[in-house]
Design a protein that fits this description.
397 residues; mainly beta; two-stranded antiparallel ribbon; 6 helices; elongated
């Protein structure tokens, strides 16, 4: 009410002071103890000897899942209700703090997810223990997320606008009393929304490994290879969600891809074998060259020493560099709204030490003396940033 009183309508035009104990909403009857899930999976692995030293190999995987869960009825909150609206019995401008649309039943959440993976390649033996492999890999995941019995907020606003409702097929919604939302209003404001998205990766890889030569402590192992990789990702929210006309957090579409080409080489050098306090000492060396279409190229390396003093005690030290590029989601994710848990440092600031920086900053900012943060969830815009740069690191362990 305009004077700050909270009331609850109890039928017709009657109302009484609000009490959480008496008027709180019980969501439990709308949920299941167990929700249905259906799955279909298929997998096949094959190998075929082309000759004595060359083998063809393949993999195929498919997985499909469909599931659904009931949810509590949609929540309407913080809605201004004009005094002149035909269903407002108070004669005053009031604010609907919160109510559930229980008249329309539970919302329904549905998921349909499909995953494919295909691999084909050849592997074989070369000479003196050397071997190789070449493979083409493809994977794809797609998903449809549906929500039934959600609210079209634009149409809801029309049913609450006294200058619009009652004309041109727009019903006047009575949102104040339990059971007062009619099926006519439901037919006008209820929507079924559908979001689609997925990701895809294709890569071509090759590897070769073997022993370069022998040292007194053993053979020097060598491995090298290459990889071409392309990652794609996309998300298409329901058009009403993009437009901000669906109850919930608005979200923009996502679409983007990253291509990479990489080369690597590794060497394992046995330095010592079977000496006192040195059963084995090995030196590991590795280098990797990466070239990204969005970020350019980078080189990284690793130097490691493994020292096996006795059978049950080993020392290991490694120095390496690292290079991480942002993911498709981090780069291209559209802006979406979310309730982010946030702690306000100025909550109850007046009770803090007056010499503290928080006390002085909150006081200087004009925060009221009795201010207390009432809720931790803050409506926040979040999304990707196409201007992100790769991360570099140097580590020692």
């Amino acid at each position: 009410m305009p004077n700050g009183d909270q009331i609850n309508f109890i039928g017709g035009d009657a109302y009484e002071p609000f009490s959480l104990a008496a008027h709180g909403f019980n969501s439990n009857p709308f949920f299941n103890a167990s929700n249905p899930v259906e799955r279909v999976s298929f997998a096949a692995i094959g190998k075929y000897d082309l000759n004595d030293s060359t083998r063809f190999f393949s993999e195929a995987l498919f997985n499909w899942r469909t599931s659904n869960q009931p949810g509590s009825p949609a929540t309407l909150s913080n809605i201004s209700f004009d005094a002149s609206h035909p269903t407002n019995p108070t004669g005053e401008d009031i604010i609907l703090l919160r109510r559930r649309t229980a008249e329309f039943g539970s919302r329904q959440f549905e998921q349909d997810v499909s995953t494919w993976r295909l691999v084909a390649g050849v592997e074989g033996d070369l000479w003196d223990g050397w071997n190789y492999d070449l493979s083409l890999n493809w994977g794809r995941n797609t998903a449809v997320d549906a929500l039934k019995n959600n609210i079209n907020t634009r149409r809801l606003a029309e049913t609450l606008d006294p200058t619009l409702c009652g004309m041109n097929g727009i019903p006047c919604a009575d949102i104040l009393g339990e059971g007062d939302l009619t099926s006519e209003v439901g037919d006008y404001i209820l929507i079924n929304q559908r979001d689609t998205g997925g990701n895809e990766q294709i890569s071509f890889t090759g590897n070769i490994s073997g022993a370069l030569f022998d040292l007194p402590a053993g053979p020097v192992g060598f491995a090298a290879g290459f990889e071409y990789r392309e990652d794609k990702g996309w998300l298409e929210p329901d058009s009403l969600l993009v437009a901000g006309d669906a109850l919930g957090n608005a979200q923009d579409p996502v679409s983007g891809s990253i291509e990479a080409q990489e080369l690597y080489a590794e060497v394992n050098v046995p330095l010592v074998r079977d000496l006192p306090l040195a059963q084995a000492v090995d030196l590991d060396l590795a280098v990797r060259y990466s070239d990204y279409d969005l970020f350019g190229s980078d080189e990284n390396y690793k130097v490691g020493l493994n020292w096996q003093l006795v059978q049950d005690f080993k020392l290991r030290g490694t120095y390496s560099t690292a290079f991480r590029v942002p993911s498709v989601t981090e780069l291209f994710s559209g802006v979406s709204e979310g309730q982010i848990p946030t702690a306000d440092p100025c909550s109850n600031w007046a009770t803090m030490d007056s010499s503290s920086a928080v006390y002085q900053n909150c006081q200087a900012a004009g925060v009221p003396v009795g201010y207390t943060q009432l809720g931790s969830a803050i409506l926040t815009d979040q999304g990707g940033n196409p201007n992100l740069e790769p991360e570099d690191a140097a580590t020692f362990t």
